[in-house]
Automatic annotation (TrEMBL):
Record keywords: Amino-acid transport, ATP-binding, Nucleotide-binding, Transport
Residues of the ABC transporter domain: 6-235
Top-level taxon in the UniProt lineage: Bacteria
Regions annotated as coiled coil: none
Annotated signal sequence range: none
The protein, known as: ABC transporter related
InterPro entries: AAA+_ATPase, ABC_transporter-like_ATP-bd, ABC_transporter-like_CS, BCAA_Transport_ATP-bd_LivF, P-loop_NTPase
A single BP term in Gene Ontology: L-amino acid transport
One Pfam family in the UniProt entry: ABC_tran
Cited PANTHER family: ABC TRANSPORTER ATP-BINDING PROTEIN (PTHR43820:SF2), HIGH-AFFINITY BRANCHED-CHAIN AMINO ACID TRANSPORT ATP-BINDING PROTEIN LIVF (PTHR43820)
Amino acid sequence: MNEVVLKADNLQTYIGHHHILQGLSFEAQADAVTVLIGRNGAGKSTTLKTLIGLLPPSEGTIVFNGMSIQGKRPYEIARMGIGYVPEDMGIFADLTVEENFKVAKLKEDEATAGRLARILDLFGALGKFWHSPAGNLSGGQKQMLAIGRAIVNDISLLLIDEPSKGLAPIIIEALIEAINLIKEECVVVLVEQNFYMASAVGDYFHILDDGRIVHSGRMEALVDDEELKSRYLGISKSKS
Ligand SMILES: Nc1ncnc2c1ncn2[C@@H]1O[C@H](COP(=O)(O)OP(=O)(O)OP(=O)(O)O)[C@@H](O)[C@H]1O
């Protein structure tokens, strides 16, 4: 049995008066990519925002590496070793790629410089456009910058919200390769609608529906489960 790095239990999250997460519970294991999937509006992005402290839950617990993190501020949670790549990527379009990294870096030490060098090896375009405004990057390059910025610090958990959104298949292949390398360094919790990408990187899956987890298991089991894919993900056999 693998070590549990993140355990969310009975999360209840409201946005205004809307009760979005309704008792959501799941775990993420060490050395694995856990994928959250489900229909539009199921509560996937809300789950990541709840975990990182942007939407504090009204009830429930979140334990990360044995520490309770619910109720902490996002910057406190980030400093405990959780990286977050939001759906809109959150990069600073007017700043250069270099400046985007400067804003993100928590330390200017040797270990951070080593991680940055590895990120530039992984995502060659970032080095090429190092002095260009990040707003000029292509969609795929922006996603690489957003992910690179999140892993430049010493994190043990990376939360990524729908990285494949709007990207061409060839760029999705590069992202799959990158996430499979990143998972060697830290635990990944990924929200992903693209089932090809979800199944190419995921070790475990959780299906969300109406703010709850309705099915969980190993990704291989979901790949073979036509009924579940059709019911919750709208994937029919001919399309998969
Ligand atoms: N700022 C907001 N104000 C009101 N309702 C919101 C807000 N943000 C999200 N919601 C609602 O919360 C529910 C869950 O949204 P969320 O973005 O978490 O879903 P999702 O599963 O990530 O969907 P998608 O795949 O479309 O991104 C939806 O019904 C959405 O309309």
